[in-house]
Amino acid sequence: MNKYVKEFAELAKNSVPAGLPVEQWIETYNQNLAELIIKECSSVCGSQADKRNILKRFGLPVESNVKYSAPEQYGSVMSQYDREYNLPK
Predict the structure, then answer these.
(1) What percent of the chain lies above the pLDDT cut of 90?
(2) CA-CA distance, 9 to 3, in Å (whole number)?
(3) Which CB contacts under 8 angstroms, 24+ apart, belong to 59-66?
(4) Stated pTM of the model
């Protein structure tokens, strides 16, 4: 098993309240483990649409007002309009 999965399994196990009946304990553990894995998967996506789609697909809440910062423009088509013409002299 991947080290992250082992870490998430331990976190999920520790987050389940003590004293639950076995079936409820297993259900709570599975839900916590799944949420941890889903959130980790969405957090490593580069596209905000992918992040949102992963969370929505598995029924986790999605913040509709989140705006991720875009990288600075580089080699943009818009930048060519600010340059002087490269005409021979």
Answers:
(1) 44
(2) 10
(3) 60/35
(4) 0.66
Q: Over the stretch 29-45, which tens digit does the pLDDT of each residue have?
A: 999 999 999 999 888 88
Burial class (CB in 10 A: 0-12, 13-18, 19+), 57: exposed
The string of pLDDT tens digits covering residues 6-32 is 999 999 999 999 999 999 999 999 999
State the maximum Cα–Cα separation within the chain, in Å, rounded to a whole number. Answer: 86
34 located within any domain = yes
Please state, in angstroms and rounded to a whole number, the distance separating the CA atoms of residues 49 and 77: 24
Amino acid 84: pLDDT = 62
Q: What is the C-alpha separation between 24 and 21, in angstroms, rounded?
A: 5
* Residue 20 belongs to some domain of the structure: yes
Determine the distance from the C-alpha atom of residue 8 to the mean position of all C-alpha atoms in its chain, rounded to a whole number: 15
Residues in the chain: 89
Q: Looking at the 3D structure of the chain, how many domains does it have?
A: 1
